[in-house]
Design goal:
single chain; mainly alpha; YheA-like fold
Length: 113
């Protein structure tokens, strides 16, 4: 009989050793302790979540919200460490979403991706 926990640990090791995670960890180390960079990332995530929440509620974001996010995005592009962090975070997120989708399909779960 297959021990599902052994497979889960193998998957965890594969994720930890993946190029996407290693790239994310390296990018994370570059911004660690840089309060300006950390604050910029937190602000970007907050604004992004606000827009996603509104979209899920069927609400159109205001022009002011769109402009604020666009302005912050411009500032992010000027900081290579923050830009690299967000890109690495996105690549790792794609891998994690793919794994979740594969698992959900295997058990025939109706999980939105």
């Amino acid at each position: 009989m297959v021990n599902i926990h052994d497979f889960a640990h193998s998957l965890a090791r594969a994720l930890r050793d993946s190029p996407e995670n290693k790239g994310f960890q390296a990018a994370k180390a570059k911004i660690k302790g840089k309060s300006g960079a950390e604050r910029m990332i937190a602000d970007f995530h907050k604004k992004q979540l606000e827009l996603q929440t509104q979209a899920m509620q069927g609400k159109e974001p205001s022009q002011q919200q769109k402009d604020a996010l666009e302005q912050l995005y411009g500032v992010i592009q000027g900081d290579p460490d923050v830009r690299d962090y967000l890109m690495a975070e996105q690549r790792l997120g794609v891998v994690l979403n793919d794994v979740n989708k594969i698992i959900a399909e295997a058990i025939d779960a109706d999980v939105p991706m």
